[in-house]
Amino acid sequence: MSEFYIRPIEETDKDEWLELWSGKHGYLEFYKTILSPKTSDATFKRFFDSDYTMWCAVAISKQTQKLIGFTTYLTHLSTWSENNYMYLNDLFVKEDCRLKGVGRKLIEFVYRQAELKKSEKVYWCTQTFNHRAQILYNKVGIYENFVQYAKDPDYKIEE
Protein backbone atom coordinates (compact mmCIF):
# COMPACT_ATOMS: atom_id res chain seq x y z
CA MET A 1 0.00 0.00 0.00
CA SER A 2 1.30 3.42 -0.96
CA GLU A 3 2.35 5.85 1.77
CA PHE A 4 1.41 8.88 -0.34
CA TYR A 5 -1.08 10.11 -2.90
CA ILE A 6 -0.98 12.54 -5.82
CA ARG A 7 -3.44 15.34 -6.50
CA PRO A 8 -3.57 18.72 -8.26
CA ILE A 9 -2.14 21.53 -6.19
CA GLU A 10 -4.57 23.70 -4.21
CA GLU A 11 -4.21 27.36 -3.32
CA THR A 12 -3.93 26.38 0.36
CA ASP A 13 -0.73 24.46 -0.49
CA LYS A 14 1.22 27.64 -1.23
CA ASP A 15 3.40 27.79 1.91
CA GLU A 16 4.34 24.11 1.73
CA TRP A 17 4.95 24.31 -2.02
CA LEU A 18 7.18 27.36 -1.53
CA GLU A 19 9.18 25.43 1.06
CA LEU A 20 9.75 22.57 -1.42
CA TRP A 21 10.36 25.04 -4.26
CA SER A 22 12.71 27.55 -2.67
CA GLY A 23 13.34 26.47 0.92
CA LYS A 24 16.39 24.82 2.45
CA HIS A 25 17.16 21.56 0.61
CA GLY A 26 14.46 22.47 -1.93
CA TYR A 27 14.24 22.31 -5.71
CA LEU A 28 15.94 25.61 -6.48
CA GLU A 29 18.77 24.87 -4.05
CA PHE A 30 19.33 21.49 -5.74
CA TYR A 31 19.85 23.34 -9.02
CA LYS A 32 21.90 26.10 -7.33
CA THR A 33 19.37 28.69 -8.50
CA ILE A 34 17.82 31.69 -6.82
CA LEU A 35 14.58 33.23 -8.05
CA SER A 36 12.94 36.34 -6.73
CA PRO A 37 9.88 35.89 -4.50
CA LYS A 38 7.97 37.80 -7.21
CA THR A 39 8.87 35.13 -9.80
CA SER A 40 7.94 32.28 -7.45
CA ASP A 41 4.64 34.00 -6.64
CA ALA A 42 3.87 34.50 -10.34
CA THR A 43 4.62 30.83 -10.99
CA PHE A 44 2.26 29.72 -8.23
CA LYS A 45 -0.53 32.01 -9.46
CA ARG A 46 -0.28 30.59 -12.99
CA PHE A 47 -1.30 27.15 -11.72
CA PHE A 48 -4.79 28.56 -11.05
CA ASP A 49 -5.11 31.05 -13.91
CA SER A 50 -7.08 29.76 -16.90
CA ASP A 51 -5.12 32.14 -19.17
CA TYR A 52 -2.13 29.83 -18.74
CA THR A 53 -1.68 26.19 -19.67
CA MET A 54 0.60 25.48 -16.72
CA TRP A 55 -0.31 23.17 -13.85
CA CYS A 56 1.16 21.57 -10.76
CA ALA A 57 0.50 18.28 -8.99
CA VAL A 58 1.71 17.44 -5.51
CA ALA A 59 2.56 14.28 -3.62
CA ILE A 60 1.10 14.16 -0.11
CA SER A 61 2.26 11.92 2.75
CA LYS A 62 -0.71 9.92 4.06
CA GLN A 63 0.82 9.93 7.54
CA THR A 64 1.53 13.66 7.90
CA GLN A 65 -0.71 15.13 5.17
CA LYS A 66 2.30 17.29 4.19
CA LEU A 67 3.67 17.87 0.70
CA ILE A 68 6.61 15.62 -0.11
CA GLY A 69 6.99 16.36 -3.81
CA PHE A 70 5.62 18.18 -6.82
CA THR A 71 5.69 18.34 -10.58
CA THR A 72 4.88 21.24 -12.87
CA TYR A 73 3.84 20.76 -16.46
CA LEU A 74 2.50 22.76 -19.37
CA THR A 75 1.16 22.29 -22.87
CA HIS A 76 2.33 24.05 -26.00
CA LEU A 77 1.83 23.90 -29.74
CA SER A 78 4.30 22.10 -31.96
CA THR A 79 5.15 22.52 -35.62
CA TRP A 80 5.56 18.75 -35.74
CA SER A 81 2.04 17.84 -34.66
CA GLU A 82 -1.59 18.82 -34.98
CA ASN A 83 -1.92 18.21 -31.23
CA ASN A 84 -0.24 19.85 -28.27
CA TYR A 85 2.90 18.59 -26.61
CA MET A 86 3.17 18.45 -22.84
CA TYR A 87 6.39 19.55 -21.19
CA LEU A 88 7.15 18.24 -17.72
CA ASN A 89 8.85 21.39 -16.47
CA ASP A 90 9.84 20.55 -12.88
CA LEU A 91 9.92 17.41 -10.74
CA PHE A 92 11.02 17.36 -7.11
CA VAL A 93 10.75 14.92 -4.22
CA LYS A 94 12.01 15.65 -0.70
CA GLU A 95 15.30 13.87 -0.13
CA ASP A 96 14.01 11.64 2.70
CA CYS A 97 11.09 10.53 0.49
CA ARG A 98 13.10 9.51 -2.58
CA LEU A 99 13.36 5.94 -3.88
CA LYS A 100 9.81 5.21 -2.69
CA GLY A 101 8.00 5.62 -6.01
CA VAL A 102 6.96 9.25 -5.53
CA GLY A 103 8.76 10.57 -8.61
CA ARG A 104 7.36 7.78 -10.77
CA LYS A 105 3.80 8.46 -9.60
CA LEU A 106 4.19 12.18 -10.25
CA ILE A 107 5.37 11.43 -13.79
CA GLU A 108 2.48 9.00 -14.30
CA PHE A 109 0.08 11.73 -13.13
CA VAL A 110 1.48 13.98 -15.88
CA TYR A 111 1.11 11.13 -18.39
CA ARG A 112 -2.59 10.84 -17.46
CA GLN A 113 -3.06 14.59 -17.78
CA ALA A 114 -1.47 14.46 -21.23
CA GLU A 115 -3.98 11.81 -22.27
CA LEU A 116 -6.88 13.89 -20.92
CA LYS A 117 -5.64 17.01 -22.69
CA LYS A 118 -4.94 15.04 -25.88
CA SER A 119 -1.26 15.94 -25.88
CA GLU A 120 0.60 13.84 -28.40
CA LYS A 121 3.90 13.79 -26.56
CA VAL A 122 5.24 14.25 -23.02
CA TYR A 123 8.87 15.23 -22.71
CA TRP A 124 11.32 16.73 -20.22
CA CYS A 125 15.00 17.40 -19.69
CA THR A 126 17.33 17.18 -16.73
CA GLN A 127 20.80 18.27 -15.76
CA THR A 128 23.58 15.93 -16.85
CA PHE A 129 24.68 15.52 -13.22
CA ASN A 130 21.26 14.34 -12.01
CA HIS A 131 22.10 10.65 -12.31
CA ARG A 132 19.57 9.38 -9.75
CA ALA A 133 16.72 11.00 -11.67
CA GLN A 134 18.05 9.60 -14.94
CA ILE A 135 17.75 6.07 -13.56
CA LEU A 136 14.02 6.69 -13.10
CA TYR A 137 13.67 8.51 -16.43
CA ASN A 138 15.20 5.57 -18.27
CA LYS A 139 12.46 3.36 -16.78
CA VAL A 140 9.49 5.61 -17.60
CA GLY A 141 10.72 7.31 -20.77
CA ILE A 142 13.16 7.13 -23.64
CA TYR A 143 16.33 9.11 -24.22
CA GLU A 144 15.86 11.16 -27.41
CA ASN A 145 19.45 12.23 -28.23
CA PHE A 146 18.71 15.96 -28.19
CA VAL A 147 21.06 18.56 -26.77
CA GLN A 148 19.42 21.59 -25.19
CA TYR A 149 20.70 25.12 -25.79
CA ALA A 150 19.73 28.48 -24.31
CA LYS A 151 20.60 32.04 -25.26
CA ASP A 152 23.77 33.28 -23.62
CA PRO A 153 22.72 36.28 -21.48
CA ASP A 154 25.81 38.15 -22.73
CA TYR A 155 25.13 37.50 -26.42
CA LYS A 156 24.66 40.74 -28.36
CA ILE A 157 22.68 40.83 -31.58
CA GLU A 158 24.66 42.57 -34.28
CA GLU A 159 23.02 45.62 -35.83
TrEMBL record:
<dbReference type="Pfam" id="PF00583">
    <property type="entry name" value="Acetyltransf_1"/>
</dbReference>
<dbReference type="GO" id="GO:0005737">
    <property type="term" value="C:cytoplasm"/>
</dbReference>
<dbReference type="InterPro" id="IPR000182">
    <property type="entry name" value="GNAT_dom"/>
</dbReference>
<dbReference type="InterPro" id="IPR051016">
    <property type="entry name" value="Diverse_Substrate_AcTransf"/>
</dbReference>
<keyword id="KW-0012">Acyltransferase</keyword>
<feature type="domain" description="N-acetyltransferase">
    <location>
        <begin position="4"/>
        <end position="159"/>
    </location>
</feature>
<dbReference type="GO" id="GO:0008080">
    <property type="term" value="F:N-acetyltransferase activity"/>
</dbReference>
<keyword id="KW-0808">Transferase</keyword>
<dbReference type="InterPro" id="IPR016181">
    <property type="entry name" value="Acyl_CoA_acyltransferase"/>
</dbReference>
<protein>
    <submittedName>
        <fullName>N-acetyltransferase HPA3</fullName>
    </submittedName>
</protein>
